[in-house]
Amino acid sequence: MKIFLICLTLSALVLTATYLVSSQTRRPLPSLENPRIVIEKKKRLLQLFDGKKLVRQYKMVLGFATKGDKEIEGDGKTPEGEFYIFTKNDQSKFHVSLGLSYPNIKAAKRGLREKIISQEEHDAIVKAIEEKRMPPQKTALGGEIYIHGGGTSGDWTEGCIALENEEIKEVFDRIPVGAKVKILP
Description:
Structural class: alpha+beta
Number of domains: 1
Helix content: 25-40%
CATH class: Mainly Beta
Largest sheet: 8 strands, mixed
Radius of gyration: 20 Å
Shape: globular
Distance between the termini: 54 Å
Strand order of the largest sheet: 3-2-1-8-4-5-6-7
CATH superfamily: L,D-transpeptidase catalytic domain-like
Order of helices and strands: HEEEEEHHEEHE
CATH architecture: Beta Barrel
Number of strands: 8
C-alpha cells in the first residue's frame, strides 16, 4: 500500500510539474522592440528574437523537398538566406501568414547567370529589395514564400514554413512588416 501511495504521489508531482512548465511556455509574449526571426531548417526550429534575446522557439516544417536552397518554381525547397517580412495576411488559407521577400538579390543574380530569369526580372527583383517592397512573386525562381499555419505533422508545404495555427498567430501578432528573417540550412 505504501509503494502504491508513493507512486501515486510521484505521478501527481510529475503531472503538476508538467502543467507548470507548459503553462509557463505558453504565457503571452511581451511587446518586442526589435523583433527578428531565425529559422534553422535542419532542426525544424523557428526562433523569435527581440534584438539578441531569444524570446520563444517553435517547432516548424518545411517544403516537401527538405535539402538545399530553393532554385526554381515548384521544386518544393524552402529558400535559405536573409529576407524581410513584406506583408502580413490575416485572410490566409493557412490561418494567418507572413510574406518573405523571396526571391532576394542573391537568387536574382543566380537566376540571371543561369538564364532562369530575364534581365528585366532581375532588375525588378533588385529594385523591390532595395526599396523594401514585395519582390515579383511569379518568376521562374519561385515566389509566394510565407511563414504560415496549417500544422507541423511532416514537411508538406511547397517551400513555405508552417507552424501550428496557435503559434503562427502568436508570431503574426508580434512581427511587423520589415522585420528581418534569416533562414539557415
